[in-house]
Write a structure and sequence with these properties.
Low-confidence stretches: none
Helix content: 40-55%
CATH class of the largest domain: Alpha Beta
Strand content: 15-25%
Bound molecules: uridine-5'-diphosphate
Structural class: alpha/beta
Number of strands: 13
Order of helices and strands: EHEHEHEHEHEHEHEHHEHEHEHEHEHH
Strand order of the largest sheet: 3-2-1-4-5-6-7
CATH topology of the largest domain: Rossmann fold
Shape: globular
């Protein structure tokens, strides 16, 4: 079986690393498998792309479609045009997509229109929020995918309610957590650690990049100035996403505790998260990682497609208004962390299960 693996953006790179590793292990054991890795070029900054390939030992992509930035539609269209050509030149049996970025949806549509089977890893998660580009990507992708791999039983239920064939929906666990477990022993203290006076538990990590939080400059400034008040003597380390940085521009902020740093590579970032007091974020992936690491997480969104991070894990959904964050955070400071565990099958073996299951299918 020939598999074309698609990756376009930072969270994709983190998800494909263990899948490629599982394929290579099966190849060594003699399984009839080969793969071709296609980078769509959706993320192209070194610190959102190349660093992850190097740190996670992901092989150099066989093709880079170099689509770069653009509006939602321009980017999606450019990926489609380039990926169609890629598949014409390099026929394949199966296209494997991960996550919920534009590359995920665009490549799924192209493959299905060429009668090529598609498998979606991290299928079925739903926020119910149609203002999120990712939610549209998830729904479109899952409506035409052939084989689904899910991170939770609620994602499986969503797919079946949506009309997916239950025989093609497989609850296998979480590939992002595979990467976490495979690299935990390599998490690396950043070079600025001592100079900034960082110690285990004496700082907060902040990440923000969702349009609802960052696209409107005044509300972003208001949010950051509100978050700054929560520090209580702790530094707030903020690896600023290029998207957020572009919106703030040269704006001067009245913050005293937030330390702006460049987006971090995976090994430094995970070291920072694993040793932090709390994390404040609007990322979905980070709410999964903090759940596994047992770090309290405050998600600045009105909904989440990852409900198990709240019901089982350490995540608190606090909306996008700073007042609610302050209220929830203050209760947490008074009562301590809620009792939390690790969701079922988030055990580091999801990728192996995926490849095992694909090998049993007649593709
Ligand atoms: N991440 C990283 N460096 C950073 C910020 C995030 O390595 O400076 C990692 C993080 O550990 C997580 C992933 O990037 O695995 C999440 O990416 P992002 O927030 O862009 O995507 P989302 O989870 O919102 O889809």
């Amino acid at each position: 079986m020939k598999i074309t693996i698609v990756a376009g953006a930072r969270p994709n790179f983190i998800k494909i690393a263990p899948i490629i590793r599982a394929i290579e292990q099966k190849q060594k054991a003699g399984a009839p498998l080969s793969y071709r890795l296609v980078h769509t070029g959706q993320h192209y900054d070194k610190n959102l792309s190349d660093t992850f390939f190097e740190e996670l030992n992901i092989p150099k992509p066989n093709a880079n479609l170099e689509v770069k930035s653009g509006s939602q539609s321009v980017q999606t269209a450019n990926i489609m045009v380039a990926f169609e050509q890629e598949l014409l030149e390099n026929p394949t049996d199966l296209v494997l997509v991960v996550g919920d970025v534009n590359s995920t949806m665009a490549c799924t549509i192209v493959a299905k229109k060429m009668n090529i089977k598609v498998t979606h890893v991290e299928a079925g998660i739903r926020s119910g929020d149609m203002t999120m580009p990712e939610e549209i990507n998830r729904i479109v992708t899952d409506s035409i995918t052939d084989y689904f791999f899910t991170t939770s039983t609620s994602a499986t239920d969503n797919l079946i309610r949506f009309g997916a064939n239950p025989e093609q929906v497989h609850f296998v666990g979480n590939v992002m957590i595979d990467t976490l477990y495979q690299n935990q022993h390599r998490f690396e203290q950043p070079t600025f650690w001592s100079d900034m006076g960082l110690e285990k538990g004496n700082y907060i990590i902040l990440t923000l990049h969702r349009p609802a939080n960052v696209d409107e400059e005044d509300s972003l400034v208001n949010l950051l100035e509100g978050i700054d008040q929560l520090a209580q003597g702790k530094k707030i380390i903020f690896p600023i996403h290029p998207r957020t940085k572009a919106i703030l521009g040269e704006r001067q902020l009245k913050t005293k505790n937030i330390v702006f740093i460049e987006p971090q590579g995976y090994l430094n970032f995970m070291y920072l998260v694993a040793n932090s007091f709390t994390v404040i974020t609007d990322s979905g992936g980070i709410s999964e990682e903090t759940t596994v690491l047992g770090i309290p997480c405050f998600t600045l969104r009105n909904n989440t497609e990852r409900p198990e991070t709240i019901s089982v894990g350490t995540n608190h959904l606090v909306g996008t208004r700073v007042e609610k964050l302050v209220e929830t955070y203050t209760t947490f400071l008074q009562n301590g962390m809620k009792k939390a565990g690790i969701p079922d099958l988030w055990d580091g073996k999801a990728s192996e299960r995926i490849i095992e299951i694909l090998l049993q299918k007649e593709i």
